[in-house]
Amino acid sequence: MHTLETQVDVWGIEAGFIDAFERWHDTPEATRLALRSAMGQEPLEIAEHWIPDAPEPCPEPARAWGWTVQVYALRSQGSWGIGDLADLRRLGQWSAARGAGFVQISPLGAMQAVPPLEPSPYYPSSRRYLSPLFLRIEEIPGAQRAAARWAPLAERGHALNGAALIDRDAVFALKMEALEGLWAEFKAGAPEREDFARFVVESGQSLREYAIHCVLTENLGPNWKEWPPAYRHPAAPAVAYFAAEHLERIAFHEWIQWLLDLQLDEANQALHLVQDLPIGFDPGGADAWVWQDLLAFGASVGAPPDLFNARGQDWGLPPFIPHRLQAAGYGPIRETIRALLKHAGGLRIDHVMGLFHLYWIPKSMDPDGGAYVRYDQEELLSVIAEECRRTGAFAVGEELGTVDPWVRERLKAWGLLGSKVLWFESDPPGDWPRAALASVSTYDLPTLAGHHLLARSPALLVAASLEDALGVTVRPNLPGTIHERPNWRMPLPKTLEELEKDPAAMALAAALARGPQPR
Fold it and tell me: What percent of the chain has pLDDT over 90?
């Protein structure tokens, strides 16, 4: 229960905060010194504000309902043990036929290029590029011409659908073997080579750096901080020499991203996707390697102690240094949002308070020893609004919990919809505001089977989870647990084919399609 109405020093470190128990905490001097050290303590040259006086807000969506879905959990008979982009496209087609306007999806960001793979979609190697786990092998250009290469692998992949939990490492091994065989066929003379070449040119240096990181990871290990020093920076001469010696493998990883781009585009054409922007990324991953000069690796993002976590939380995500991010013109934020909105109709921003301030924890301290660091929310909000206007996409800010009223006012001024979740609201859905995305629950809250009250909300966007539609009683994730339960590894209890015929799912879709009724 923090507040932004507090003093801030020149580094952006706040003087203290009010916790969930209404107690004020001063920022200790030791914390302040540790955070300054993490920022580098170079002289600060705060850039002049380059934001227009009057906000040009994000576009407002038309009223619509849709599903929220953990894509990995959406398995069909054609899946290889995990939900993929073809499954997502089919869900979109089925939902659109019932009047849905969008599908809000879990993050699809790429994990490290070698197993074991991180199960959480909120701890990606890159927020800009996608995981090959989500490819439908059978729909890759040229796949039918080379069916002999992947057909035996498909049989093993389909067998993984019978597993109670999703085995990402097993899926990854099968799909990478299939991709390597299809890559050989593609290089031999596929007619789509010009389309791929065009994609590489349009994607530019960003895609190349990501692909180089993948190949370095395959050769040196999953954490770039543990590589030989000569390879730890993308601009290092040794990296250039390495790239020159591994051009074909780099092209292979670029090709995978092209395939993912094609299949994601088809899913978005079936029904507009609402992409999910995680609050950060793996400190040992691709985005951190590329943007390391703008990050504070001496600290990590988390949360102070609250009613649910008495010791606080350390999420292990490296924060951007405010003045360095500003000096870079917010390039990483702009590039990330642009990538997410390339094939999407909307954007959900996880923990939108991160645009205002983040709770930094010095590496040498426990979560309760952290402090809030302020960002220039007007500049960040303007970047989001500008990127949304480029494509006509809307934006939703996840601002659950205690939030200062003026924060919601700033989000509204920039056109970001708020989040309304039944678990947190005392008012009935019929009294909720119009400028919101309304839902029954979230991925780390208990599910509610068949809850039709949501249809009474006047909110512009109304979403129900597939877990609710199928009566699932176990949530996809329980915060604070890593080894205690199989977070992010539980498939839906029914296949996509069964979902399409499920009476409860169809009834919920019909109720949501009717919209708010007179009371």
Answer: 73
Q: What is the Cα–Cα distance from 152 to 148, expressed in whole angstroms? A: 8
Does 6 reside within a domain?
no
Tell me the pLDDT tens digit for each residue of 288-305: 999 999 999 999 999 998
pLDDT of residue 33: 95
Give me 472's structure tokens.
Answer: 């699932």
* pTM: predicted TM-score of the whole model, two decimal places: 0.94
For residue 448, pLDDT over 50 is answered with no
Determine the Cα–Cα distance for residues 225 and 227; give it in Å rounded to an integer: 6
Q: Parallel, antiparallel, or unpaired for β 24-26 and 16-18?
A: antiparallel
- Is residue 519 in a domain? no
Number of domains in the chain: 1
Per-residue tokens: 142: 């040229």
Residue 349 in tokens: 């921003």
Across the chain, what does the average pLDDT equal? Answer: 90
Does 156 fall in a domain? yes
Per-residue exposure over 118-138, b if at least 16 CB sit within 10 Å of its own CB, e if not: bbbbbbbbbbbbbbbbbbbbb
| Of 59 and 421, the one with more pLDDT | 59
Tokens of 65: 């309902």
Q: Minimal CA–CA distance to 307: which of 120, 476, 480?
A: 480
Cβ atoms 442, 421 nearer than 8 A? yes
Report, as an integer, the average pLDDT of 232-245.
98
ω before 116 within 30° of 0 (cis)?
Answer: yes
Give helix then strand counts, H and E, for the chain.
Answer: 15, 16
Per-residue tokens: 192: 């789509």
Mean pLDDT of 496-519: 85
Q: How confident is the model at residue 519 (pLDDT cuts 50, 70, 90)?
A: very low
Q: Is residue 460 in some structural domain?
A: yes
Q: Contacts for 235-244 with beta carbons within 8 Å, 24 or more apart?
A: 239/212, 242/212, 242/215, 242/216, 243/208, 243/212, 243/215
pLDDT for the residue 169: 98
Q: What is the CATH number of the domain that holds 295?
A: 3.20.20.80
| Structural tokens at position 417 | 């919809």
pLDDT, one tens digit per residue, over 257-271 is 999 999 999 999 999
How far is residue 64's CA from residue 428's CA, in Å, rounded to a whole number? 19
Q: What Cα–Cα distance (Å) separates residue 501 from each residue in 99, 155, 480?
A: 16, 25, 36
- End-to-end Cα spacing for the chain: 35
Residue 84, pLDDT above cutoff 60 = yes
Q: Are 13 and 32 in contact (CB under 8 A)?
A: yes
User: By residue range, what is the domain housing residue 379?
Assistant: 16-514
Q: Give ∠ CA 242-280-492 in degrees, rounded to 5.
A: 105
